[in-house]
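Action item from last week, closing it out:
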Amino acid sequence: MTNPVPHEQVPLNEYRALRQSFFLGWGCLPAGAFWRRIVGLWLGSAVLVAPIAAVSFPWPRHGLELILWSGLGACLVGSLPVLHLWLGWRYVLQRLESASIVYEETGWYDGQEWTKSAVELTQDRLLVSYEVSPIVRRISRTLLAFLGGGGAIALLIWGLPNAS
């Protein structure tokens, strides 16, 4: 039986497209390049939110608050692209792991399901084990770092004395 799934909806091809994507392809980068981009993302987010925080907390009088609120904003804003990265890779991981594939022939109204052959399933699951799962783990840890850092900063802000 031939594979009736359209070329762009075959999980292996979705994986290849994800690897070649500008932003979502970050997951495939070597560790050093990945972390440089993540730090750049956080710094870019900090530059974006710092002027907003500076309106509420002017530097000379509220320097610590400005730094903390800018860091919190950078963690929250920076976590959104990382969440997008995680969702994209998680979707492909699930499609590769699944024994059957839901696909659309021409549009949303004509969904079908196709069961992978044993060879295709084995190939896809090997790809998950050696390529995709490590990427998803690294992105998951990155997302947790953004959210954990934001939580830690929020606790620091909460613990500040209310100085007037």
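Closing note: The chain has a mean pLDDT of 93.
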